[in-house]
UniProtKB/TrEMBL annotation:
Species of provenance: Marinobacter salsuginis
One Gene Ontology cellular component annotation held by this UniProt entry: plasma membrane
Domain of life of the native organism: Bacteria
Chief site of localization: membrane
Name of the molecule in the record: Glycosyltransferase 2-like domain-containing protein
Localisation per UniProt entry: Cell membrane
Occurrences of domain Glycosyltransferase 2-like (ranges): 8-109
Stored Pfam families: Glycos_transf_2
Keywords per UniProt: Cell membrane, Glycosyltransferase, Membrane, Transferase, Transmembrane, Transmembrane helix
MF-aspect GO terms: glycosyltransferase activity
InterPro entries: Glyco_trans_2-like, Nucleotide-diphossugar_trans
Membrane-traversing stretches: 229-248, 254-275
SUPFAM superfamilies: Nucleotide-diphospho-sugar transferases (SSF53448)
Length: 312
């Protein structure tokens, strides 16, 4: 990477003492002698997150009341880099990350209106839900870059005014849509490997996470109408509810099974469309995760927890 291109890593964090040290160490390993800065945007941690980050020469900004989007924007205000790298506090970069970024930058458009990054990979030791849901996300086509590992030029960031800090979730999706509306290009780059050590490891944590992420889709009728996931989740819960109501009121087993069958077909279809076909056993496991995903997204309208527990 040419010497006039500097990297700014911006990491939102809240009580991440178990992860922040490994995350920062991975940045140092991946960047080597390349000039870069690491900015940890803390949301009011009560553990040793700040202490650990500062001991590893990261700049720490504290804002107890900001949304995650607000934390990222605050990080950029204190950053000097031409390339802004947003990663979560439980994400670790592969050692060849920088050399692959250099290759990707050569492909960037001349106006540098670009958003890139990649879907995070799972660790080598993984749970049922990590193997059968999150590991398969790297196969799927997407219309946005997840902010767990999102890279953007300063030109692109400044043109659209950064993240919408009024949003509590889905700020990365909104960011990418506004970038596209402003003639920006989304270029996912799976060569930029990053590993997420904060994926849910239990089904309950998975459901909690997805309920949290789905809240923004149900915050208004306009957002609901624009979200295929929210519409599918609502349709799925409708079929299941009709199945229960039909049985409770009429004891009509056939009608009950029809609605239940429609829900199953919906989950099978979404799994196939999202991940493609697999062996029957693996496909069934992913379909179970898909059904839980849809149910969690539907119940996000009732979700009131400030932030989900990612790992249990």
């Amino acid at each position: 990477m040419s010497s006039n291109v500097e990297l700014s890593f911006i990491i939102p964090a809240l009580n991440e003492e178990k992860n922040i040290g490994n995350t920062i160490h991975s940045i140092h390993k991946a960047t080597g002698s390349q000039a870069c800065e690491i900015i940890v945007c803390d949301n009011g941690s009560k553990d040793r997150t700040i202490e650990i980050a500062e001991s590893l020469h990261a700049t720490v900004i504290v804002d107890k009341f900001a949304t995650i989007a607000g934390l990222r924007n605050a990080g950029v205000k204190n950053a000097t880099g031409a390339v802004l790298v947003f990663i979560d506090a439980d994400v670790q970069l592969a050692e060849d990350w920088l050399q692959n970024l250099e290759l990707e930058i050569e492909k960037w458009p001349q106006d540098r209106l670009i958003v890139t990054g990649s879907t995070c990979l799972i660790p080598s030791t993984s749970s049922f839900v990590e193997k059968n849901w999150f590991a398969k996300l790297t196969r799927t086509a997407t219309n946005y870059i997840n902010s767990g590992h999102l890279i953007v030029s300063r030109e692109m960031f400044e043109k659209i005014g950064g993240f919408d800090q009024t949003l509590k979730t889905a700020e990365d999706y909104d960011f990418c849509q506004r970038a596209k509306d402003s003639n920006g290009r989304l270029m996912e780059a799976q060569s930029l490997k990053a590993y997420h050590y904060g994926f849910p490891t239990t089904l309950w944590a998975f459901c909690s996470r997805e309920a949290w992420h789905g809240r923004e889709d149900f915050s208004s009728l306009r957002k609901f109408a624009r979200s295929k996931t929210a519409i599918t989740a609502a349709l799925n819960i409708t079929f299941l509810s009709l199945s229960l109501i039909t049985y409770a009121l009429t004891f009509n087993v056939f009608a009950t099974l029809v609605f239940l069958f429609l829900s199953i077909i919906l989950s099978l279809t979404l799994t196939g469309l999202k991940f493609g076909m697999d062996s029957p056993g693996k496909f069934l496991k992913t379909t179970i995760c898909c059904e839980l995903y849809l149910l969690s997204r539907a119940f996000s309208v009732f979700y009131r927890q400030t932030r989900p527990s990612q790992r249990e």
